[in-house]
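Repro:
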Amino acid sequence: MKLNAPTQLVWIIALVLGVLAFIGMLVSIPFISANAFWVLFVGWLLLVLATLLKGL
C-alpha cells in the first residue's frame, strides 16, 4: 500500500480541528466543548484519509 502526503489545506483543517478540540476541553465553547472527542476524531480521520487517498 502506497501512502501519500496530505495536501497543505487538509493538514491545516485537521490542525484547526485539533486545536479547537483541545481548547474546547479547557474553555466552554458551545458546540465544540460538548463534542470535543468527535471534533478531534474527525480531524484525525481526515488526516488518515488524506494519507490513504491520492489527491486529498
